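Tokens for chain A. Residues wanted.
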């Protein structure tokens, strides 16, 4: 039986969908990629996606492709942008509608046109096929804007509302003699001699007992505490980045688990490192 072909009075571009899936785990933010199993760009890494069927919406199409190529079964994604550069696809005139989402990392496996599916850290993303490097750049900016909107700790905090908590870096002995710790004692009720946890209108996270790995358990404890107290808003300062001398790049990943905790506000410097 002869395959039916479409004919049109006017040229029509093909339409694809692609999905940028950001995954969060205890070690930070990751990105989901597939290794292409067919040409063009066979063997290259790209976002899950494919051609849109005639009987589905763009969102339905991208969710279908995501499940077929990675096994990840999601229900909701957000539209990022449309990419229509004339030469973006060597197969011909192809326009793609890109989507993005943030979810917890899960087990994935390549399927359909994808030879592999794999999570990558954002500092280890391989060269991408098509114009997917541009799509990734745009998606990261969009996610950063979305997450940080309204959740940025002010550079200078002089007063607090009743439901706000000042989160500062301390030492285990609770000797709050300088930096944000001194502000916590003088203005927000931090207790001299208490180096960990909530006190007054503050929360202390020890940062001076060793390397970054010694800080992580206290940050994780803080995130659990904040998650259990949605009635409070926690303003995290740049803990460990002042007197102690750690960098934002070293400390920010410790707060990866705070990305989805809406009552935790982070410094803009941390947001830039996380997303």
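Reply:
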């Amino acid at each position: 039986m002869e395959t039916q072909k479409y004919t049109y009075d006017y040229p029509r571009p093909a339409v694809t969908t692609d999905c940028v899936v950001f995954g969060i785990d205890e070690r930070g933010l990751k990105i989901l990629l597939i290794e292409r199993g067919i040409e063009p760009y066979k063997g290259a890494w790209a976002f899950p996606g494919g051609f849109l069927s005639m009987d589905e919406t763009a969102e339905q199409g991208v969710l279908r492709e995501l499940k077929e190529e990675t096994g990840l079964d999601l229900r909701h994604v957000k539209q990022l942008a449309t990419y229509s550069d004339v030469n973006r696809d060597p197969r011909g005139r192809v326009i793609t509608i890109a989507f993005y989402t943030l979810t917890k990392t899960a087990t994935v496996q390549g399927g359909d046109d994808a030879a592999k599916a794999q999570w990558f850290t954002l500092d280890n993303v391989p060269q991408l096929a098509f114009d997917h490097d541009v799509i990734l750049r745009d998606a990261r900016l969009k996610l950063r804007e979305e997450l940080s909107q309204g959740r940025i700790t002010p550079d200078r905090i002089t007063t607090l509302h009743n439901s706000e908590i000042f989160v500062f870096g301390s030492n285990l002995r609770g000797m709050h003699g300088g930096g944000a710790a001194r502000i916590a004692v003088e203005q927000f009720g931090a207790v001299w001699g208490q180096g960990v946890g909530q006190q007054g209108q503050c929360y202390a996270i020890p940062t001076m007992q060793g390397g970054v790995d010694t800080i992580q358990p206290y940050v994780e404890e803080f995130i659990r505490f904040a998650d259990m107290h949605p009635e409070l808003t926690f303003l995290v300062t740049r803990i460990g980045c002042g007197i102690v001398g750690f960098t934002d790049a070293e400390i920010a990943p410790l707060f990866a688990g705070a990305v989805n905790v809406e009552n935790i506000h982070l410094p803009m410097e941390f947001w830039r490192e996380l997303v």
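Residues 132-148 form the longest helix (17 residues). The helical segments are 58-70, 132-148, 179-188, 212-227, 248-251, 268-274.
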